[in-house]
Amino acid sequence: MKKFNLLTLVAALLLSVSASAQIQKGNVLVGGDLANLNLGLDNSKRVSFDIMPKAAWFVQDNLALGGYVRFGIDGAKNSATTTRYGIGALGRYYAGPEMEVVKHGRFFGEVNVGVGGVNVSDGGGKTNGLDLGFGPGFAYFITPNVGLETLLKYQGVIGFGSATTQNALNLSFGFQIYLPGQATANRIKSGR
């Protein structure tokens, strides 16, 4: 019976949170972004992708702070391989109320800072040091707790190696889950 009550509570939490409640203070964002996806089917067999898992906590309404990990690879048969990595802190701010034109959509800005690098094999450029990124994005909430996102982000590495800087402008697509924090769960339990 306790298992049924727990499942009922989780279902109620996921279904009863309003479309703007997911970005309230105390809630948690967990998910990731995928960029630069290329699975070559020609003779070169090029493979390229970037993945950036992230987790953040809403320290106030519309403002989340957390961390990220970034890994990317770009390579082909008989050519140099580029690896990209990073780990650090991120911040995200959601602007304004829900949009009337696109129900359940919100614009946001995201920044990250950490340690990272871009390294090219076979004598290519290598840069390791400060990992920086910033850019605008748009989240569309397909349910009150699940968002599909797109993010146009400048990503750069400043540091040391054979090149002092390496940078790129990436268009990524993401999938985020917005989990209610303890305060939200308590409000739902008490019926407020």
Low-confidence stretches: 4-19
- Estimated share of beta-strand residues: over 45%
Total number of distinct structural domains: 1
Instruction: Tally the helices.
Output: 2
Question: What is the chain-wise order of helices and strands?
Answer: HEEEEEEEEH
Structural class: mainly beta
Task: Indicate the mean pLDDT.
Answer: 84
Going across the biggest sheet, name each strand in turn: 1-2-3-4-5-6-7-8
Helical residues, percent: 10-25%
Give the name of the CATH architecture: Beta Barrel
Instruction: Compute the number of strand runs.
Output: 8
Largest sheet: 8 strands, antiparallel, barrel
Q: What sort of overall outline do the alpha carbons produce when their principal axes are compared? A: elongated
Task: State the end-to-end CA separation.
Answer: 25 Å
Rg? 20 Å
For the record, what CATH class applies?
Mainly Beta
* CATH fold-level assignment: Porin
